């Protein structure tokens, strides 16, 4: 898969393509159905497949504060890895900024789809809106497609038990810590990947060293303490994971994921790990003292140990 940042890069490599567009947050089963549709159309037209990935999400761009935009299910790097796993030929990372937000719908079609990408077939949701003040819609795309010679196809919809799968629905289930259902909707367990970075070493001082990850998103979809598994290449280890803002330690700051891997003492700084969430233990709360926090972490770790031991016995 080739990642490009603008249409000029694409025009140096290809003259045309079959494309779809979206935020693809979560790359869930609904998205995967669209990707399959994209690849089939690309084969039909004998053209490369291309995903126009909108970054940042428009809701993030316009949001005055992090709390006023939807939480991200997947970070950008995770999204790109998932798209690559579905054998997409190109991803155009379309930067949503002030200039793009003010681009008229007509110029959007002309400059990006026609002149920039030479789109032969454009796969898009019937409710897709684009251009300045969201004035462009499916009907306009069809009209201009007939004029410029590209087909406009409505995206396929994936339903689970009568409900259309969407990123919004998955966020709601994540908030409720229904990880079994989320796994069914994603087609994989829910996880967060990231590079282990150095923290304040507070976990080590308390007797529970942690692997710290920056979740790399403006708003996180999970808050609290979770029973998880940490994937280290081909090994899976149980872990007690806190994701949030550490109210006992600081009054403000960026979100942080802290994973205490049970019975583990390897140094992982600079390495990428994957944290797979299995069950929620409790909400993140502010403790009166570090001793109270240490006592609670000890209880959390024992609960995780028991959960995984019970699960192993059931198998």
Structure description:
The chain contains 11 helices and 14 strands. With 315 residues, it is of the alpha/beta class. The protein is 35% helix and 26% strand. The radius of gyration is 22 Å and the shape is elongated. It folds into 2 domains: 2-164, Rossmann fold, CATH 3.40.50; 189-314, Riboflavin kinase-like (Elongation Factor Tu (Ef-tu), domain 3, Beta Barrel). Strands 1-4-3-2-5-6 form a 6-stranded parallel beta sheet, sandwiched between helices. Strands 9-10-13-12-11-14 form a 6-stranded antiparallel barrel.
Report helical residue fraction. 25-40%
* Morphology call: elongated
CATH C-level class of the largest domain:
Alpha Beta
- Taken as a percent bin, the fraction of beta residues is 25-35%
Total strands: 14
What letter string, H or E per element, gives the SSE order? Answer: EHEHEHHEHHEHEEEHHEHEEEEEH
- The rounded Rg comes to 22 Å
State the oligomer: single chain
Spatial strand arrangement across the major sheet: 1-4-3-2-5-6
- In DSSP terms, counting alpha (H) and pi (I) runs of 4 or more, how many helices? 11
CATH topology annotation of the largest domain: Rossmann fold
Counted up, domains total 2
- CATH H-level superfamily title of the largest domain: HUPs
Average pLDDT over all residues: 91
């Amino acid at each position: 898969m080739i990642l490009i940042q603008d249409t000029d890069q694409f025009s140096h490599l290809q003259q045309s393509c079959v494309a779809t567009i979206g935020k693809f947050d979560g790359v869930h089963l609904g998205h995967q159905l669209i990707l399959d549709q994209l690849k089939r159309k690309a084969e039909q037209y004998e053209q490369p497949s291309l995903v126009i990935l909108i970054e940042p999400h428009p809701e993030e761009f316009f949001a005055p504060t992090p709390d006023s935009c939807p939480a991200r299910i997947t970070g950008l790097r995770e999204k790109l890895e998932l798209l690559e796993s579905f054998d997409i030929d190109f991803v155009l990372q379309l930067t949503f900024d002030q200039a793009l937000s003010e681009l008229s719908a007509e110029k959007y079609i002309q400059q990006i789809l026609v002149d920039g990408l030479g789109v032969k077939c454009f796969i898009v949701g019937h409710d897709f809106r684009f251009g300045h003040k969201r004035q462009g819609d499916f009907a306009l795309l069809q009209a201009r497609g007939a004029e410029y010679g590209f087909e406009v196809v409505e995206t396929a919809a994936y339903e689970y038990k009568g409900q259309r799968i969407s990123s919004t629905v998955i966020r709601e289930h994540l908030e409720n810590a229904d990880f079994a259902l989320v796994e069914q909707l994603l087609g994989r367990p829910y996880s967060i990947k990231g590079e282990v970075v150095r923290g304040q070493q507070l976990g080590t001082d308390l007797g529970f060293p942690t692997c710290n990850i920056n979740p790399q998103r403006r708003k996180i979809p999970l808050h609290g303490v979770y029973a998880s598994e940490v994937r280290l290449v081909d090994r899976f280890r149980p872990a007690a994971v806190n994701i949030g803002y550490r109210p006992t330690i600081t009054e403000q700051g960026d979100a942080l994921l802290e994973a205490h891997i049970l019975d583990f003492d390897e140094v992982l700084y600079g390495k990428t790990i994957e944290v797979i969430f299995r069950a929620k233990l409790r909400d993140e709360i502010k403790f009166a003292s570090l001793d109270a926090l240490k006592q609670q972490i000890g209880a959390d770790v024992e609960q995780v140990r028991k959960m995984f031991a019970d699960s192993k016995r059931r198998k």
